Every structure is written in structure tokens, then in C-alpha cells.
Amino acid sequence: MSKAAADTVRQDPHRPPTTASPQASPDPQTSAPPQASPSPQTPASPQPPQGQQPAPASLAISLASALDEEAYAHFRAIDPEKQQRIIDAALEEFANRDYASASTNAIVKRADISKGLLFHYFGDKQGLYLYLLDHITQEHYAEAAAGIDPACDDIFAIMQKSIEAKLDVTPHDLLATRLYMRAMTDDLPARARAFVSQMTGAAYDTFALMVALLDEDRLRTGLDRDMVVCTINWASEGLVNHLLATVGSQIDNAEFRQMMEYTKQYFDFLRRLFYREP
């Protein structure tokens, strides 16, 4: 990981610092990209009042798309099977190669379409990359929301269930993880880097809302609830940086499972650290 990518910037006390962006690279594509809507700074999610937990039903596991949907109208209009074929081809390429080395020629060959048609749908390589990141992120959040019991009001129970669901890794899970790791560490063009920063900030905001679901009645005597929330947020950001630095972007099945087991142990340790034993 580059030094710039590893540096962090402190923000509000209830949200972990967002990983700083590496220096953006110039976009090597010459064709005109679809115009994405401006990416406003993602507002921090509202924090619950001190000592008050939000109702479980208010927990929104979602991330609104930051892309201009009209820019991808041609792609949205084609047959869903063809859409998925192009997405799968792009994921295979961008997950296994850094952004600069990823080849649109390889993508169109794998998807069995012409290069002109690919650029008609996405404008350029960066437009395709942005769409892919947004698509995989929406998919991930939809799966996360579907796996959470609306009645569950404890962050540790939520994390345990989410991690257990990922222990049986699929090829798609592995490619999506590689894509995210590369997105966090690759030198990207300006629009892509801005989108990754916004996506990361929104993900931290969502996680902060999940962390706020502490079972306050189980906290050890003398612990301040808000300090516990901050500690979990900041420690979790450190865990992400540690995994990025040690696992690498070419993560395989065994490493993915090991990463999930390690994360499970980490949250179990935090649970035992902050909660009284039943």
C-alpha cells in the first residue's frame, strides 16, 4: 500500500477516519466519458442522542448511488442477461489487475461484444469502472440487509451473523473483495478516486449506525457508552487498514476465509471486552 493510501484523516468523533486517497492518475482514455453527477461530500449520518439507542427498524443498510443514472441509460435498456455478462467480464478484469493494466479489449472479448458498443454503454474505461463499483456495492449492501434480522438490536450479533454468512466463500465474493482492495490501494483517475472516497465515507457512516446498536444493559460497570462506540469505530478502521496491508489484492479462497475468521475473532474479543458475561 502506498504511504498516501495508508495515511488517515480524523473526522467527527463518532466516525472512523477515512483512508486518504492516493494521488489521482490522469485518465488514459480519450473517448468522452458519460457525465456523472457531481459527487457532493457524503453527509455524516445523524448520531443518536447520548445514552439512547436507535430502534432496530431505523437501521438503514444502504448506500445511495452517486452516479448519474441517465449516463448509463443505454446499458440499463439492454437484456439483463447481456448486462450480467458484461458486468461479470468487467469484474473478472478489474479484480485481477490494477486499474492501469486492466484491459477493455479483454473485457469485450470475454463479454462477446464490440469495443464500440462497450464505450456506447459506458463512455470510457473509467465510466465502466465507476458503474462496476457502484453495482457491486449496491449488491453487497442488499445482501447485508437481507441477512439481518430486523428485530436484532446488538452490533455483535449482527456482525457474527454477517461474517458466518461469508465463511462459505463464492467465486463472486472473492472477486468483489479483490475489487474493493484494489480500489482502496490503486492509483485511480480523479473521478474514480473521488467516488471511492465517497463510497468509503458512506460505508463508515453505515457501520457507525450499526455500532450504535449496543446492548447498553450488558456493558461492564463504569464504561461510557459513547466512548465504547468510538473505540469500536476506530479499532475497526485499524482492522481494515491491517487487512489491506497484510492480505493484498490477490486474495485467494483460503486467505478470504482466514480474513473472515480473524474478523470474527476480533469482534468476539470486543464483545468480551465491553460486555459482562451472561
State the name of the first-level CATH class of the largest domain: Mainly Alpha
**Assembly annotation:** single chain
Task: Please list the strands of the largest sheet in the order they lie side by side.
Answer: 1-2
Helix share of residues?
55-70%
What is the end-to-end distance?
A: 42 Å
Low-confidence stretches: 1-63
CATH architecture of the largest domain: Orthogonal Bundle
User: What value does the Rg take, in angstroms?
Assistant: 20 Å
Number of domains: 2
**What is the ordering of alpha helices and beta strands?**
HEEHHHHHHHHHH
Residue-averaged pLDDT: 75
**Secondary structure tally: strands:** 2
Counted by DSSP, the helix tally is 11
Question: What class would the helix/strand composition place it in?
Answer: mainly alpha
How would you characterize the largest beta sheet?
2 strands, antiparallel
The rough form would be described as elongated
**At the third CATH level, what is the topology name of the largest domain?**
Tetracycline Repressor, domain 2
Strand content: under 5%
Care to describe what's here?
The chain is mainly alpha-helical. It has two domains: 71 residues, Homeodomain-like (Arc Repressor Mutant, subunit A); 132 residues, Orthogonal Bundle (Tetracycline Repressor, domain 2), CATH 1.10.357. It is 56% helix and 1% strand. It contains eleven helices and two strands. It has a two-stranded antiparallel sheet. The longest helix has 23 residues. It is elongated, with a radius of gyration of 20 Å. The N terminus is likely disordered.
